[in-house]
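From the shared-data thread, chain only:
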Amino acid sequence: MKFTANKREAAGTNASKQLRKQDLVPGVVYSSDMEPVNITMNRADVDQIKRELGINSVFTLDLDGETKTVFVREIDSAAIKPIVYNISLQAIKKGQKLEMPISITVVNEEELGDADGVAAVNTFEIDVVADPSVAPEVIEIDVTGMHIGDTVTAGDIKLPEGVELNQDAEESIVSITVPDEEPEEDANETEEEAEPEVINEKPGEIVEEDD
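Structure, as tokens:
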């Protein structure tokens, strides 16, 4: 895919707010051989990048007539409202490798060796060094046949060719555990105590007990 961006001079919170009012998204293009460049992109284009490409994706950017291959480092957006605050891009050369996170997902949890086991994910990303143009968006961890007490470390994960692990190989990524048991409610605590029945009481009268 190819998208267009323009260089911008104004920076700061107020300038960014004004750009968003014009359906523009502020951003930055980083590069290993030049200073960061402040840019603006059409919001519709950034929405498409977020929706169809996502983080770690690679596309062609026309920056004021200069064509660059860029890698999506980050898209800063609101958690609830459909607002994109900023986009960060990294200009790359063909075959260049970068440090980057890759999301992980667990598959075949229903095929665990212990029927009562669950796969507890300790971290949802691993750090790698890879060429973004060939790096996968997600790495699957297959837990078929694993038992309670088993662990998948970062070093256990089979990475695609050309992707190198960039973190402690002994770090636990997925653990097979038993589900937490919910504490039983105490019947004495939950059962409401009935008020004692007062016999021969009339409205407005106090019943006195005989000594």
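The chain has two domains: 2-93, 99-177.
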